[in-house]
Amino acid sequence: MDKRDKPKAPPRKPYIWEIILAMVILIGVLVYSVAVLGIDVHIPFIVVAALTALIAIRMGYTWQELENSILKSIASVMQAVLILIMVGMVIGSWIQGGIVPSLVYYGLQMIHPQVFLVAIFLVGSLCSIATGSSWTMIGTLGVAAIGISEGMGIPLPLTAGIVIGAGYFGDKLSPLSDTPNLHCAIARVNLFEHCKNVFKYTIPSFLLALLMCFICSRIYAPRSTGGMSSIAEITETLHDSFVIHPLLILPVLMVFLMIALKIPAIPGILLMAVVGSLCAMIVQGANLHDTLTVLLYGYSGDTGSEIVDSLVTRGGMDSMMYITSLILCVSAYGGVIDVTRILHVLVEKLLGRVNSPSGIMISTALCGFILNIIAVDNYVSAVMTGNMLREKFIRRGLSPLNLSRCLAESCAITSPLIPWNTCGITMLGMLGIPVLKYAPFAFLLYIPPIMVIVISLLKKGIIYLTPEEQAELLKNDSAA
Question: What is the DSSP letter of 41?
């Protein structure tokens, strides 16, 4: 028999040193790129994918096998990409339609010096849910809150911690945020089901954090009413630049209604964009050309107030290219790492004896936090944690909704607690308060992970798969 006709040997499993090398490449390239070079993680992920592909070829995989796995991995996240693109349309149309400005306007009317900390906590949470962006809320209302606190004599780290916690609370819950969409893409679950599941178990954390804000407001009562001019500037500018009306807040209820009715994400979000565009044309008097332009490029504020312009200059399909391109780059790496089963073998080595549902939940939360420390980026920690543990969840009969909730309660919200993480660095740049000073007061950043551990130990809040659902998921994953 001719040597060239000999059938190709099947690829082998990775050796332990190859697994370690792959992890060193991943963490080393990403940490160097983010911490030293100060660049985004898109290109580093492509570099990591290419270097990991060399390990895969050494294991016996052909390029065609790797390419097929990459394409399947990208195909698995295309729903999330479509949702994110339409979310950009919603944000732009809701700002142009006066929905977000009305919510911010009436929210700021609630703020009173004697309950300032409680009010900024509630308003910040609502605004981050409505805009789908923690950074936008923190960089606008958060900056204003710091200025007001300084005038009132309230400790700045206290205000910073409360504002940041409120921002990330809304960010992890809002269907308009890139974070839940990324977590859903990783866990492969429905967006609205994910948001509903996270919301249900976030309520105790939110109420406890609200109580702590109230206690702090009594301990650190404002010594003066100075600084409220920032609030007046924002509300007056919004009132002069948009038609503000209480009825414009009603579309926000659509988000909760669609979650309750389990409406599919894509048509539901598209309907939200249509409502926003109708409000822009009917209420705000925008013409069709401007309305369609905002859907593509987002709304650009020109109010004369820098802080208001920063708040309303957002949205559009174009604004989502950063996160969608990141998802594609990460998926390319995921395709390579998945076909080689490097992460699966690593999980078995590290967590092979962890088989109880509560143990898996706790391990996932801890893994997300540890990778936030090591990988210095919450997107990277979510991708690594999710890819490593999704199969373990399914094989133990646990719904991937448990995984997406753990990602939300560990990877997403603990990143601002780490000084060298990209989120911690950004918070310092925005508010000027060091991470270790505001961290004790960022109640909504550390209470939820603790609640995940406590609830899991009590064997509560865990969603199980039926045997039919488990078999279907395993079949689909095997086919992919």
Answer: S
Does residue 245 form part of some domain? yes
Angle at 25 between CA 180 and CA 179, to 5 degrees: 5
Task: Give the domain range for residue 265.
Answer: 79-321
Query: DSSP characters for 136-175?
Result: HHIIIIIHHHHHHHHHHT--HHHHHHHHHHHHHHHHHH-T
DSSP state of 38: -
| CA-to-CA separations, 317 to 171, 293, 338, in angstroms, rounded | 19, 10, 30
3-state DSSP call for residue 228? coil
Q: How many domains does the chain have?
A: 1
* Amino acid 311: pLDDT: 76
- 163 vs 124: CA distance, rounded Å: 6
pLDDT category at 288 given cuts 50, 70, 90 is very high
Whole-model pTM: value is 0.72
How many angstroms separate the CA atoms of 401 and 198, rounded? 9
Residues in the chain, total: 480
Average pLDDT over residues 264-283: 88
Rg, C-alpha atoms of the chain? 23
The verdict on residue 39 lying in a domain is no
Q: Contact, 314 vs 131, CB < 8 A?
A: yes
215: in domain: yes
